[in-house]
Amino acid sequence: MTVRLASSVTEKGSKFSLGSKTFCATCDSNKYSTLTTDDKGVTVGASSCVYCDSGSIPNSELTGCDSCLAGTYSSIGDTTCSPCGAGRYSQDGAGVCTYCSPGTYSSEGSPSCQDCDPGYFAPNGASTCTDCVAGKKEVNNFCENCPAGTFSEAGSSECNSSCPEGTYGETGKTTCNPCPAGKFAPLGASFCESCTAGTFSAPSSGACTDCSAGKVSLGGTASCDSCNEGYYAPQKSSSCRVCTAGRYSEAGAGSCSTCTAGKFSSTAAGSCTTCSAGKFSALVSDDQGAASCSDCPAGKVSEDNSAECSGSCEPGTYGAVGSPVCLPCLAGSYSGSGADSCENCEEGKFSEERAASCTNCTAGKYSGKAASTCDDCVAADGYVSLEGEGQCTFCGVGKRADATTNACKDCLKGKVSEGGSSTCMSCLGGKYSDLIGASSCKSAPAGFKPTTDHTDVMACPSGKYSIGGASSCVACPAGKFSTYDSVNGAVGCTACNLGSISIEGSSSCTPCSPPSCSYDGLTCKQCNGNGQYSDEDGAAFCKTAKAGHKPRGDRKGEEQCPAGTYSTGGANECSECGEGESSAAGAAGCSTCATCATGRYMISACTPTTETLCGDCLAGTASMGGKFTSCTACTEDGEYSDKNLASVCSTASAGHKPSADHTSIETCPENTFSIGASNNCTSCPDGGHSLPGSSACEKCSTGTYYNKSANTCESCPLGKFTATGENDINNCKDCDAGFISNDPDGAGFCSPCEAGYYSNLAQTKCLPCPPGSISGIAATTCDLCEIGKFATGSNNTVCTYCDDDKVLKGSTTKSTGSTSIFDCQCEAGDFKSDESSICENVFAGVSSTSDGMTVPTLSIEPGFWRSSETSKKVLPCLDKRHCKGGSNVTDLCTEGYTGPLCAVCQPNYASTGSGQTLTCTKCGGSAFATIAAISTTFFVIITASICYCLRRSGETPIEKKGLTAHDDLNRLRTFSTDAKKKAKAMATFVDEAGPILKILQYLDPGQRNFTFELRNEEEGMKKAIEKRKELEELHPHVKRLSFLYSSYEPQCYWFEVVETVRKLVLTAGLIFFQPGTAAQIVLSILVCLLSMRVYSGWKPFVSEEHDKLAEVAQWQLFFVMFAALLIRVNMDGESLQDKVYFDIMLVIIQFGAPALLVAQRLIPKKKGRIGRFFSAAADLTGFGAFGVFEAAEGLKNEFGDDVVEMVNNPLDKNRQLRAASSGRFGLGEEVVAKKLKKKKKKKKDDGERGEVDTAKDKKLFQRLESGGYNKKAVIGVGKKGLLEVKKAAAVPTPQTKEDEVEKKMIYAYKDAEGREDYDMEEEEDEVPPAPPQPPTLEEHKDEESIPPPPPTWEEHKDEESGQFYYHNAKTNETRWEKPN
Questions:
Q1: Which residues lie closer than 8 Å to 49 by C-beta, 6 or more apart?
Q2: What are phi and psi of 1032, to 5 degrees?
Q3: Strands 830-832 and 839-841
Q4: Is 80 exceeded by the pLDDT of residue 1013?
Q5: Lower CB density within 10 Å: C or N end of the chain?
Q6: Is-contact 113 95, C-beta < 8 A?
Q7: Per the record, where are the segments of Basic and acidic residues compositional bias (predicted)?
Q8: Mean pLDDT over each residue of the chain, to the nearest integer
Q9: What is the distance between the alpha carbons of residues 1207 and 1219, in angstroms, rounded to a whole number?
């Protein structure tokens, strides 16, 4: 609206008026106003003050705006111009300051930026220039590292100094570093090169020096190391060479010397060792000494450094192989004259040193083989024995050891024994024993107790019970009872039913009589509480009288309350009703007399037998009811009552009056009014008007006008106003711009729009400024935010600076009207750091022309690469052509390249060269076809080679020889239980199998045989290796293959095949799966697990350290593959910390195990070593002629030298069967004897663990069963098995074809050993006659069906049971009862 004052118009501006004021207000200091002229030429004042545009501020008179000078700036609403900060500049009238571009700088309040001097650089918005540090040069405002081998000073733009010889320079360094010892460098070198093997160098050297003879170096060392004793080296050697056996060398030697006669040396010896007494040696050749000394044969002796042996031994002494003197027989053994060994005493006997015979142990004592004394059988521990026994008899469960009779006796009833004792324990407490020979006492069952002698149990009597295992029965507590049950006993007491009671030890319960009850079964309680009674027998709880009732006097029932009284229940007596109340008989409460309701009056009051009588009030009257006896007339001013039963008189409302009889109301007529509560209507004063029923006469109010036709005041239209009521609609005034009116009841003034809003064209509402814009008070439009600012949401009053620490320092917007904080972006050459809200300068490899970059969206220049979206480390590619750059980290490489630095070829691309020369070419053809062709060719070559070798292996076809060997193997498994027979069969098999197997004999000349002979695994291996070397010298065609097996033990000569297969599967085998798939990794893990099992089981290498290292290597491969699988399935963690932990664990796995091996190597070993355990059973499945020695060694390690003697004396039937009962399938006599000797308290006969393997010993069992002997006893089950083994050893068995074959094989084996004095028949004659076999329990039961025996019967005693049985030698029958 137009603003005018009553007297004049403001002269200069700087003031404004809203129009309804009588004065002009002064503008705020950050706004201004000016005078304007309307279309009629009239000067008018301002209705509001406005802001200056950005880049200008109000002048001092607030009548206009002045532009800011260069170097300063201002925003909308500022009162002063602010100087630009350091690193920024501005032109005249600038609203924001601009950052100095990279390579320039400025100070505070600068109108422009200055260029940096050469050698200096500046980032975007720099206040000063920074010099490039020493070792760098400035190029295009970036400090680049000086190339390796050069350096520079600080503030340089060029690198012009080179490193001298013996030094090298790293990229970006200021000085040159000297080369360490073992390395050298030429002039201007960027790195030091390591000296090659056989050379060395001092620090800061330009070249390397050769090592002299006797010294070596591996390369990269400061000096050469002298060779240790037993090694030598020529000039410029990288490693020392070992002196072979029979030669030696001193430390630092250039060659090896030969050992003289009478001395020897092993491999890598520093001197020769003199042969000790009992040994001798000679030169192998003029330049080859002896590798070892040979033992003198049995019965011969020698002195130190001897070449020959002589001498012989007296009775009681013996001379072993290699012994320098004749040794006396130890206690527990004996010998005759000229013996080469001493015989051990048998079990049950003993001897002293140099004894000629052995003495029987007395009763109560025992001894094992080779015993020097007899040990006592401790009866207190449950052991007894007879004279000459080799073991103690253990008295087991239910028995005791009787030291007087040296026998085991059963425990009587009431007593028990767990075995291993000389006494039986009595059963105590709630325990009993009703059996003879019981091992443990029984617990008395529930409901019973033991008898006084604890030999039986008896049921608990009535009123008592037992929970089991108790020594006596317990009385039932009060409230419970029990009855006698001779069969089941009393296991507990039954609780009395509710309403019944019992005392302690009762056999029944008694019910409670009225008026009493019981709920605990202990006592009957009287019902004497408030309102309680009981009307039945056996009540569990007392009853309570209901409402309107009370208990009878005897408390055995209830009765009603009389009239005039009441009861709510649970009371002993009924209560009287109060005044003004009444009740009937059996009432639960009393009723109060009623009063009259509102609108009625009381005619008569109530009596004890009648109700109150009330009457109705008529129109014109009213009553509040209650005890009022009449109605009140409505006669007061303005009162009336227009209906019956009125509680109060109504008052006439405004615009109305009561009728004359006050029974209704009437409306005031037109131009009259009533304010209410009056009997009359008042006429309107002059100038007023009213409608019928009006409460007042009207004059139009502010914001309205009078409508004469309607005789009413109506509101001015929206967008108009009137300060006072108007008499016509045309007098309502329009709102000024920026002001609105929207009151539907009419506006008396217009309201200005608040800051952040603007008015619409109709001036009816204020609209919020949209995002990206702002406004002041009374605005008609909104101003867009300037560049570098933003406003989020609507109705904003100010724009927020982007260049702020709270937003993004150093950022700006691309255009005006920015609506979000995300519109604030870093300018070109900068990027947003994830660690802080600030724009940082881009670094080498990142585009400086892209704006709005963050760490994930960094635009990488061509020729550079980074690993992930979170990495800020940008690396130059080895070849810039391989990296195309961009912001997508998954697509930084050009086609055909991938991986770190794009230095790996993609699948289906072939690589040529490496590093900077790498070129990836797309492949053609089929990879599968290529692999198939190579595999087929390899298979054909291998097959042809095998066929060629088989054809040249001998004149006789391999199939025919294999058949003969197969027959021998079957004969070995079917007929023979003797180790020597099996050895002969194996030898026959090897001999017939052809030249190929003979070659295999050269590779393994009998390591197990030597181990058995020397009784030392390591010495056996060494001797086998020496033997193999001798065979290699005799067979050069074998020696040419030594590189395949020389690292392995002779018995594992074939292991290179296993190693080759493993490597092929881990390399060529994986190509059949897609690269990088989980299938490849899983196959590798399976191969590693199988390899670990093979290496740990066979331990194939000669060196124990190599065995350990090989197994550790498999573990390392397994963990590497397992880690690869974890990475493949993304299990190595998502955070950087998780990845660091994962890498640390991989490093520990890779280097931890080798470090442990090195530490173990440096720590001195303990003396001795654990030998391998070889199976001692008849399961001789080892391939080769020496499989028998593995079994023999296993028997020796497990059971002692007596079993070894059994192997060397195969026709000793007793030992033969005893060995069969001592194998893996059963533990018989030998085990029982030795186990009892080592631990007398052993309570379980190991023989009971026997297991029959009829598949391997079928023929042996059939032959023994044909003689009437139990199969299980032969294998060795318990003491009876021991007895039957002894007896079975002497049983003459029928001669069969298989027996003849066995005898021939044994004879052939003895003949092969050169024993011409061997006599088969003489050996057989030594077998003692067989004692009769007692009948089995089953045979004893069926004895009645046996026909009458012949009269030739002999009486015998069973050693175990002590019973007598009878044997017929003619019919080979045995009976328990004496025949008639």
A1: 16, 27, 28, 31, 32, 33, 62
A2: -65, -40
A3: antiparallel
A4: no
A5: C
A6: no
A7: 1307-1317, 1370-1380
A8: 76
A9: 9
pLDDT at 10 over 60: no
The pair of structure tokens assigned to 7 is 């007297």
Please tell me the distance from the alpha carbon of residue 705 to that of residue 712, in angstroms, as a whole number: 8
CA–CA distance, 750 with 326 (Å, rounded to integer): 140
Residue 1245 confidence (pLDDT):
37
Give bridge partners of residue 758 from the DSSP assignment: 767, 779
Per the CB < 8 A criterion, the answer to whether 521 and 508 are in contact is: no
Q: What SS3 state is found at 143?
A: strand
Helix (H) or strand (E) holding 1253: none
Read off the pLDDT band of 783 (50, 70, 90).
very high
Phi first, then psi: give them for residue 950, nearest 5 degrees.
-65, -35
Return the closest-CA partner of residue 94 out of 50, 57, 60, 61. 57
Of 8-12, 170-174, 458-462, 750-754, the least confident: 8-12
Helix (H) or strand (E) holding 665: strand 665-667
Q: Is 85 exposed, middle or buried (0-12, 13-18, 19+ CB in 10 A)?
A: middle
Q: Which amino acid is at 429?
A: G
Output phi, psi for 1202, to 5 deg. -60, -35
Cβ neighbours of residue 1167 under 8 Å, at least 6 residues apart?
A: none
- 1255 or 121, greater pLDDT: 121
Q: Give the Cα separation of 62 and 46 in Å (integer).
A: 12
Measure the CA–CA gap between 1334 and 1285, rounded to whole angstroms: 13
Most distant CA pair in the chain, distance:
173
Q: What is the pLDDT of residue 609?
A: 55
DSSP assigned state of 1348: P
Q: Which whole-number Å values give the CA distances from 702 to 705, 743, 749, in the listed order?
A: 8, 12, 9
Q: Give the least confident one: 20-24, 121-125, 383-387, 638-642.
A: 20-24
The number of residues making up the chain comes to 1380
- What does the H/E/C string look like for 510-535? EECCCCEECCCCCCCEECCCCCEECC
- What is the β-pairing status of strands 830-832 and 853-854? parallel
Q: Is pLDDT above 60 for 584?
A: yes
The answer, yes or no, to whether residue 1374 has pLDDT greater than 50, is yes
